[in-house]
Amino acid sequence: MKNIDKIFRKGMQDSEVEAPEFVWQQISDSLVTRRHNNRRFWLVAASVALLVGTSVMWLSVGGIQQQVAGSDSDNQGPAVEAAGVLEAPSFADSAVYVKEELELKD
Amino acid sequence: MTGTIDWDELVRLCKKNRPDAQQKVYNLLSSKMFAVCLRYAKDRTEAEDILQDGFLRVFTKIGLFDFKGSFEGWVRRVVVNCALERYRKQNLLYSVSEITDYDTHLAAEDVLSEISAGELMQMVQGLTPQYRMVFNLYAIEGYSHQEIGQMLGISESTSKSNLSRARCILQEKVEALYGQRRQDVRLLSK
After folding, report:
1. For chain A: N or C, fewer Cβ within 10 A?
2. Which H, E and C letters describe chain A, residue by residue?
3. CB contact under 8 A, B19 and A31
4. Would you call A21 an interface residue with chain B, using a CB distance cutoff of 8 Å?
5. Which residues of B30-50 are buried (b: 16+ CB within 10 A; e: fewer)?
6. 0.90 exceeded by the pTM?
7. Does the distance separating the beta carbons of B59 and A12 come in below 8 Å?
8. Could you tell me how many CB contacts below 8 A there are between chain A and chain B?
């Protein structure tokens, strides 16, 4: 190592100079702001997550209800048809009945 | 003073963002780090900015400290990196002239008995930014020319000639001040 390097290394390497107080104040303020911003970020993120979660739940519950309603109407369909099929003969029967009545009158 | 301090515990608390631990770390290391900043800065104001940026980065990136090696050394590297980044942003490039390397005949002990750390620091601050960076990184921090070249985005040979130039300037200043002090001593003793 050169002599001039040695002079500066020995002279300055372990030197200490007191920093002005306002530097810590500024660092501390920045850290507090960051902490608040982080908290705000997580609060917003949690709110969004809650909103999305609730929406998804609400939509899926609505979907399930629709599906249930849909499957109910699907089940009712054949029953109505069956009812229709049952009623049709009764109408035909009444027509036959009227015809028979007329024939008897004749 | 730092021998009785449980650094691992302090770092763990800082990782949890505890303000009291952060202030304690700052109180313990700020004087040493401010001296480092002063060596890399052109003046006190710039050194204060580097110190502030450095400690903010220390506390926001403390999660990256893996307890390998000393915490003080890690903080020092963070602060030096802040100084380098600032230098790169300013993008100060100076033309470099080749210069013959020569050395002072003065012994370090003799000079240091006459010249204070503050005066040496002022001499370093008086260098141009690139000379100052290269001299600090090579002579004080112990980096190689190859590493300095990568850090500053300059060639190895530019780093070498920057160092030579910086040494010459500092040597002239040291010899002038040392000569003056010796003369003052001689006059006083008469």
Report:
1. C
2. CCHHHHHHHHHHCCCCCCCCHHHHHHHHHHHHHHHHHHHHHHHHHHHHHHHHHHHHHHHHHHHHHHHHHHHHHHHHHHHHHHHHHHHHHHHHHHHHHHHHHHHHHC
3. yes
4. no
5. bebbbbbbbbbbbeeebbbbb
6. no
7. no
8. 103
Q: Which chain A residues are within 8 Å of B34, Cβ to Cβ?
A: 16-19
Confidence of residue B183 (pLDDT cuts 50, 70, 90): confident
State whether residue B115 sits within 8 Å of chain A by CB. Answer: yes
B139 vs A10: CB contact, 8 Å cut-off?
no
Q: Which domains does chain B have, with CATH numbers?
A: 2-90 (1.10.1740.10), 108-189 (1.10.10.10)
Give pLDDT tens digits for B140-149.
999 999 999 9
List pLDDT tens digits, range B93-136.
Answer: 554 454 555 566 777 777 788 888 899 999 999 999 999 999 99
pLDDT digits (tens, 9 = 90+) for B9-65: 999 999 999 999 999 999 999 999 999 999 999 899 999 999 999 999 999 999 999
Read off the tokens for B144: 């190689």
Report CB contact under 8 Å: A30, B56: yes
CB-based contact B70:B11 (threshold 8 Å): no
Q: How far is B55 from chain A (nearest CA, A)?
A: 7
Task: Tell me whether B14 touches chain A (CB under 8 Å).
Answer: no
Contact check, Cβ <8 Å, B48/A19: yes
* B99 in contact with A, Cβ within 8 Å: no
Best CA proximity match to B85, nearest among B53, B112, B114, B60: B53
